[in-house]
Amino acid sequence: MFEWLLAAILSKPLSDSLVEAQILDRREQNYFFKNYSQFYHDLETCFNRLLNLHNAPPLEDHQRFDKEIINDLVHFNNLAMRYVERQTELKIHQAEHWCNRLTTLKQTKAILSELYDAKCDYYYLPVRRSALKKARDLMGPGPYYAGQLPAAVPTEFLRRVDD
Length: 163
Prior knowledge:
Structural class: mainly alpha
Number of helices: 6
Number of domains: 2
Low-confidence stretches: none
Oligomer: single chain
């Protein structure tokens, strides 16, 4: 009966706490906990985010990585993937070799894509933190916390000019 009153009293402090805990983006405060009929749904959404972002790095971790360098690595990785895909089609007798290279490039692309998403300011905070978590899991904690980006193309893929 007085659920609307309880929701009205809790909405602002709850929303502020969730923003501080990096569960809710500041831009979402205008929508969450404003409609009293949706209060429990919003609460459930935030609880699910809390579970999903468990052990996710803080948003500030995105500063470990330079966006321009990530963009360059993504571009070079895409070029290399197109080249390897063509080689897979042209050199059928070496298909397994080229497929292995393509798999390696796709793994690198997955890391770079997550880091790219983490750097995008227009994504809401939970999306960016989730991307950081995935990137850390794919990279491993050592390279992640050291801010070491993967090579866009592994050096063993590069041919020597005199070959």
